[in-house]
Amino acid sequence: MSRLEWLTNLFPLWVLITAIVALLHPPLFLWVSSDYIVWILMVVMLGMGLTLSWADFKAVGLMPRSVALGFLAQYLIMPTAGWLVARLYQLPPPFAVGLILVACCPGGTASNVVSFIARAHVALSVVMTLCSTLAAVVLTPLLTKLLAGQYVEVNAMQLFWGTVQVVLLPILVGLALNTKAPNLVKKVLPISPFISVLGICIICGGVFAASASAILTHGVQLLAAVISLHSIGFFGGYYIARWVGYSQRTCRTISIEVGMQNSGLGVALARQAFANPLTAVPCAISGVTHSLIGSLLAGIWRWQQSTAIAPKP
């Protein structure tokens, strides 16, 4: 493993450090405006697109049942959990909308890294992320309007066009570059994951800095709500796959994919579509939380597998 890969795999630590620094000294990140967040996330999604080829779309046909189960779990468990958790913790409207929004987002690209660390099914993780991300163009706006409409007026069309801009277009550009300029893509790919991590850190830093006082005031309530949301996702995904009868490897993959959201997309959409900047705060906290929970589970699962295959003395 190269030094750059090692630094990339420590992404939860970098996000956590960025969040703490932004809370303690907000001026360092107050320059991160909504426009910057959109452009940064487009670069992150472009990096995902560069890793894709038409063969990845064909791979969906090789594992249709696993992909379908993960897809349904993603868009049934997480949005429902977001709505229930927001009501259970009686979150103020902007925080409730933000929590529901991030719950309606697709799986995050960081799930692919965590699946690798957990010795799960990386190919399945990539295909699931691809499918949920493409479907997010329609499902994220619709589900957010359905579940968060009781708190504030949700402009589904604005969310739709924001998702097209931030998700679909960069992925299509990356896919085209991978097809038409493979040599260029090979040169960029080694540094692309680290650039993505850096971009997510900057996005989270900007949101934490802009809402530092609100986060410090409601921090415990928000953190408890976000932890609850992602815990439901991780364990719900795992036990649904186990109930269906899939292998441990597939169960872990679906668990990671359901539990880890594209929090960066949530932040970008929140800053684009909602006037209250506090709406983006749960999304930013989500980015830190699901990375830490996912990394912890990956470490436990990797250790369990190593122990299981280790020769007895």
Automatic annotation (TrEMBL):
<dbReference type="GO" id="GO:0016020">
    <property type="term" value="C:membrane"/>
</dbReference>
<protein>
    <submittedName>
        <fullName>Transporter</fullName>
    </submittedName>
</protein>
<dbReference type="InterPro" id="IPR038770">
    <property type="entry name" value="Na+/solute_symporter_sf"/>
</dbReference>
<dbReference type="InterPro" id="IPR004710">
    <property type="entry name" value="Bilac:Na_transpt"/>
</dbReference>
<keyword id="KW-0472">Membrane</keyword>
<keyword id="KW-0812">Transmembrane</keyword>
<feature type="transmembrane region" description="Helical">
    <location>
        <begin position="156"/>
        <end position="177"/>
    </location>
</feature>
<feature type="transmembrane region" description="Helical">
    <location>
        <begin position="95"/>
        <end position="115"/>
    </location>
</feature>
<keyword id="KW-1133">Transmembrane helix</keyword>
<feature type="transmembrane region" description="Helical">
    <location>
        <begin position="67"/>
        <end position="89"/>
    </location>
</feature>
<feature type="transmembrane region" description="Helical">
    <location>
        <begin position="222"/>
        <end position="241"/>
    </location>
</feature>
<dbReference type="InterPro" id="IPR002657">
    <property type="entry name" value="BilAc:Na_symport/Acr3"/>
</dbReference>
<feature type="transmembrane region" description="Helical">
    <location>
        <begin position="189"/>
        <end position="216"/>
    </location>
</feature>
<feature type="transmembrane region" description="Helical">
    <location>
        <begin position="7"/>
        <end position="24"/>
    </location>
</feature>
<feature type="transmembrane region" description="Helical">
    <location>
        <begin position="36"/>
        <end position="55"/>
    </location>
</feature>
<dbReference type="Pfam" id="PF01758">
    <property type="entry name" value="SBF"/>
</dbReference>
<feature type="transmembrane region" description="Helical">
    <location>
        <begin position="122"/>
        <end position="144"/>
    </location>
</feature>
